[in-house]
């Protein structure tokens, strides 16, 4: 959700785009078919700090994910 202004989420390289309007809650479900890192950026100019709005989704192979869960008590 967004508390202030319109934002846009872009997940690359799968070219998935999603608009986030203020004061609405959203659930975005993706089902990756390959392991790797997927960049997340805000693709809607939203003001000061816009260029710093980014992140990464890291998709692990199933065996590596199960190991990670055990190591983190999940």
Can you lay out the helices and strands and say which pair or pack?
Elements: E1 7-12, E2 16-20, E3 36-42, E4 54-59, H1 62-71
Antiparallel strand pairs: 1-2, 1-3, 3-4
List key phrases describing it.
74 residues, alpha+beta, 4-stranded antiparallel beta sheet, 4 strands, 32% strand
What is the gist of this entry?
The chain is built from one helix and four strands; from the N terminus they run ββββα.
Textual characterization of the structure:
This protein is an alpha+beta fold. 14% of the residues lie in helices and 32% in strands. The chain contains 1 helix and 4 strands. It has one helix at 62-71; strands spanning 7-12, 16-20, 36-42, 54-59.
Give me the Rg, rounded. 15 Å
C-alpha geometry? elongated
Question: What's the β-strand tally?
Answer: 4
Kindly report how far apart the N and C termini lie.
Answer: 26 Å
């Amino acid at each position: 959700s967004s508390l202030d202004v319109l934002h846009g989420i872009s997940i690359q390289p799968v070219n998935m785009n999603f608009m986030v309007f203020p004061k609405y809650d959203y659930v975005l479900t993706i089902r990756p078919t390959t392991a790797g890192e997927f960049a997340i950026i805000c693709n809607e100019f939203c003001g000061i700090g816009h260029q710093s709005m980014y992140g990464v989704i890291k998709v692990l192979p199933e065996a590596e994910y199960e190991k990670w869960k055990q190591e983190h008590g999940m």
